[in-house]
Amino acid sequence: MTLIDQFHRPLRDLRISVTDRCNFRCPYCMPAEIFGERYQFLPKPQLLTFEEITRLTRIIVRLGAVKIRLTGGEPLLRQDIERLVSMLDALEGVEDLAMTSNAYLLPQKIDVLKAAGLKRLTISLDTLDDEIFRKMNGGRSGVDKVLAGIYAAEKAGFSPLKINAVIQRGVNDHTVVDLARFFKERGHILRFIEYMDVGNKNGWKMDEVVPAREIVERVHAAMPLEPVASNYFGEVARRYRYVDGGGEIGLICSVTQPFCGSCTRMRLSPEGLIFTCLFATEGVSLRDPLRAGATDDELEKILRQTWGDRIDRYSEIRNSLTDEMRDQRKKVEMYHIGG
Ligand code: SAM
Ligand code: SF4
Ligand code: SF4
Q1: Cα–Cα distances in angstroms (integers) from residue 269 to residues 184, 213, 332, in the given order
Q2: Cα–Cα dist 228/248, whole Å
Q3: DSSP conformation class of 142
Q4: 151 CB contacts (<8 Å, ≥6 apart)?
Q5: Alpha-helical segments (H) within 9-160
Q6: Sorting pLDDT into bands at 50, 70 and 90, what band is 324?
Q7: Highest-confidence range of 119-123, 312-316, 329-333, by mean pLDDT?
Q8: In the chain, pLDDT over 90 holds for what percent of residues?
Q9: What lines the ligand 1 site, CB under 6 Å?
Q10: Residue 291 — φ and ψ, nearest 5°?
């Protein structure tokens, strides 16, 4: 029987954050002033091993998840990540195995990832303007490094790629058309993401959010677009295609047009906590019972209970919260549970 939550949403996707570390310091995710030299990331013994992740994933797949995405932090920083990819690829019932990465380390990893069974890649790139991009990753990378990762992925056969771009008013919103044109020409699917109030460390303000509608209007004025129906229930991005047949873009409008009603995602943190929402305040530990010797059936019971009790719909209630209420809510950080 399909496992459903309190709002009848099935469990379909699992996002696995394999590390809380990152080689970038995007101010909207891991501001450099907070995540400096002395910041204490999770010590290695606390991280789930690949064997532990695979065991938990096998159980979660049994409960209905068919799409798996590896994320972080930066997943390519996790040593031998390709070994995890091949372990997950071997699981019965996994229909899609994807990764979200900033692509900095991709050129040296792409062939082993492909050989291990990675199916799809999403690469984050917020702008093609080098100066702005450096600001948006805390001075850790130029655009050239990410493009090198994109070209390597194309060469390895990962086309079309999905490209994630977070848009912030007054930062990179004036560069959206250039970005759209570039990826239209290369045949990749650019997804504009509304800047979100994930975690408590990025100093999010509503007036820095550029509503998706505005982004569509800007791109449409330069290259006409028309809406397309979603591919499947729970698809996060609203899709638009270029009228000239030159591919499509997506909009992830978590702030202005929330999609909690069709949210089918479960998240597993690097230290084995289950989160049922990107804006959750706490997770349920699977690592503790697992390391205390729980059987698969016992772990499955915890998972069933956690999903069965789920009532998350943060994005739908965000606008009814005052700034103070939002600040008081101690949410998990994006670099910790991934996008
Ligand atoms: N490090 C990888 C990367 O950047 O692609 C994977 C993890 S990152 C947390 C996943 C996605 O979340 C990225 O595309 C990133 O742009 C997005 N993201 C991070 N903070 C965000 C925020 N405050 N609002 C919207 N998207 C955000
Ligand atoms: Fe790192 Fe990705 Fe967060 Fe940027 S968005 S700091 S690349 S985890
Ligand atoms: Fe899903 Fe939570 Fe985002 Fe709503 S706010 S779409 S429940 S992750």
Answers
A1: 34, 32, 10
A2: 9
A3: -
A4: none
A5: 50-62, 81-89, 106-116, 130-136, 143-155
A6: confident
A7: 119-123
A8: 83
A9: 22, 28-29, 71-72, 74, 100-102, 124, 164, 166, 193, 195-196, 198, 202, 334-335, 338-339
A10: -75, -15
pLDDT at position 322, please? Answer: 80
Q: Counting atoms of ligand 2 from 1, which one is nearest the CA of 335?
A: 8
Round to the nearest angstrom and report the end-to-end CA distance of the chain: 29
164 is written with which tokens?
A: 């994630």
Distance CA 220, CA 235 (A): 22
d(CA 182, CA 116): 30
* Of residues 67, 160, 155, the one with CA closest to residue 113: 155
Q: What is the DSSP string of 176-224?
A: HHHHHHHHHHHT-EEEEEE----SSSS---GGGB--HHHHHHHHHHHS-
* Ligand 1 pocket mutation pick from 15, 21, 29, 140 by most atoms within 8 angstroms of CB: 29
Q: Mutual orientation of helices 176-186 and 212-222 as an angle, nearest 10°? A: 60
Residues 168 and 217: their CA atoms lie apart, in Å, by 16
For 36, 152, 168, 321, 339, the CA distances from 172, given in Å and listed in that order, are 24, 25, 6, 27, 20
DSSP 20: S
Residues 151-178: tens digit of each pLDDT: 999 999 999 999 999 999 999 999 999 9
